[in-house]
């Protein structure tokens, strides 16, 4: 099993450009999450999806949109990238919400110039 | 507000020795889960250990154990017989009843041969 996969691994954007980060899991998990990781701040939740067809805001949702395309896939979109969105982005999944262990993807490093 | 604090940004330990990483959290909930995740230089997030707040017995996983003090809202991680492969960033995390996981800022652990 591949677990949680993310594409791309690394991306450079100019301010104002848009892009979509892709995430897929093959563990039949119901819940999926998007985090960003910045130095000294740990991981902060951007959006999460408790089940197919539902999405909810996390701690830092501004400037992002998400789509739970199906049970396997959960994408994160930056409509107009800003330098403050330079970060490492992690996707995660768990069998259900409510205190289950999360499985993380390898991360996407995004640089916005 | 629910928060997770890791007061030690950096720690070091001699190979084969024991080290304890500190974590405190703040919540008004009585039922919750706590986690320690490890992030090696590869950036992959790996679950180390999980503790259910309603269980008084401290969780253990091979060389990793926790000291869970619910009244003090403390959740420290003890690594025994430290190995070079234990060198990583360690994150304490707390999962709320609202299905959100809050991460601490992390502790960078170095293992000295």
Describe the structure.
The complex is a heterodimer of chains A (about 110) and B (about 110). Chain A has no helices and 11 strands. Chain A is mainly β and about 110 residues long. In chain A, the strands form 2 sheets. In chain A, strands 2, 4, 5, 6, 9, 10 and 11 form a 7-stranded mixed beta sheet that branches. Chain A has a 4-stranded antiparallel beta sheet with strand order 1-3-8-7, with no helix packed on it. In chain A, a hairpin with a 6-residue loop joins strand 5 and strand 6 (about 55). The mean pLDDT of chain A is about 90. Chain B is mainly β. In chain B, strands 2, 5, 6, 10, 11 and 12 form a 6-stranded mixed beta sheet that branches. A 4-stranded antiparallel beta sheet of chain B has the order 3-9-8-7, with no helix packed on it. The termini of chain B are far apart. The chains are: A mainly beta (about 110), B mainly beta (about 110). Chains A and B meet through strand 4, strand 5, strand 9 and strand 10 of A and strand 6, strand 10 and strand 11 of B.
**Care to count the β-strands of chain B?**
12
Total of DSSP H or I helical runs spanning 4+ residues of chain B:
0
What is the number of helices of chain A?
Answer: 0
Name the chain pair whose interface involves the most residues: A-B, 25 and 24 residues
Oligomer: heterodimer
Overall outline of chain A: globular
- Number of extended strands of chain A: 11
Helix % of chain B is under 10%
**Mean of the pLDDT scores of chain B?**
91
Q: What's the helical proportion of residues of chain A? A: under 10%
Instruction: Please give the largest β-sheet of chain B.
Output: 6 strands, mixed
Distance between the termini of chain B: 41 Å
Radius of gyration of chain B: 14 Å
Low-confidence stretches of chain B: none
H/E topology pattern of chain A: EEEEEEEEEEE
Question: Structural class from helices and strands of chain A?
Answer: mainly beta
Low-confidence region ranges of chain A? none
């Amino acid at each position: 099993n591949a677990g949680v996969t993310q594409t791309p691994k690394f991306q450079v954007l100019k301010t104002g450009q848009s892009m979509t980060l892709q995430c897929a899991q093959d563990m039949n998990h119901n819940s999926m999450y998007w985090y960003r990781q910045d130095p000294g701040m740990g991981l902060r939740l951007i959006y999460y999806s408790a089940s197919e067809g539902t999405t909810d805001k996390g701690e830092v949702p501004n400037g992002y949109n998400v789509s739970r395309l199906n049970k396997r896939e959960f994408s994160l979109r930056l409509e107009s990238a800003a330098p403050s969105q330079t970060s490492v982005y992690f996707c995660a999944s768990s069998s259900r919400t409510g205190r289950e262990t999360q499985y993380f993807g390898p991360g996407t490093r995004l640089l916005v110039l | 507000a629910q928060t997770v604090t890791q007061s030690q940004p950096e720690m070091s330990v001699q190979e084969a020795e024991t080290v304890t990483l500190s974590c405190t959290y703040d919540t008004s909930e009585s039922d919750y889960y706590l986690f320690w995740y490890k992030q090696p230089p590869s950036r992959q997030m790996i679950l180390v250990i999980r503790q259910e707040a309603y269980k008084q017995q401290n969780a253990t996983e091979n060389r990793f154990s926790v000291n869970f003090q619910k009244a003090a809202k403390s959740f420290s991680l003890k690594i025994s017989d430290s190995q070079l492969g234990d060198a990583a960033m360690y994150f304490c995390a707390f999962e709320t009843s609202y299905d959100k996981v809050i991460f601490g800022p992390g502790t960078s652990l170095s293992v000295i041969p």
